[in-house]
Design brief:
Length: about 120
């Protein structure tokens, strides 16, 4: 034990340093396997270039965004779009999100108020 600091303060400092660090998620395969898969996929795309480019280019409309997951994790940069973007077909998974407002028409209904008056109500949600 060091002099000048009680044991409780030393323990609190140790807990703070452990809790202050970002939690590291450890994959069973590691990032090396992800880089290796990405390299081989890009290599395969380059070899079969004229045919594979049709599978690599995706397009989303003005009112849509594409969220790209690479090996099951969100790709750096967030959602992409509108327009054209490139993906790696074997590695990336694309989810298209529609940003338009959706409205539903509620059919007219007759309701009875507290003072026994019938009122027809129509709504759009």
């Amino acid at each position: 034990m060091s002099e000048g600091k009680p044991q409780d303060e030393q323990h609190d400092q140790h807990v703070l340093t452990v809790e202050g660090q970002a939690p590291e998620e450890k994959d069973s395969c590691g990032p090396i396997l992800g880089c290796l898969l990405t390299f081989f996929s890009v290599f395969f795309i380059v070899i079969t270039f004229p045919f594979s480019i049709w599978f690599c280019i995706k397009m989303v409309q003005e009112y849509q965004r594409a969220v790209i997951f690479r090996l099951g994790r969100l790709k750096r940069g967030g959602a992409v779009g509108p327009g054209l973007f490139l993906i790696i077909p074997c590695i990336d998974n694309v989810q298209v999100v529609d940003l338009r407002t959706v409205s539903f028409d509620v059919p007219p209904q007759e309701i009875l108020t507290k003072d026994s008056v019938t009122v027809a109500v129509d709504a759009v949600v």
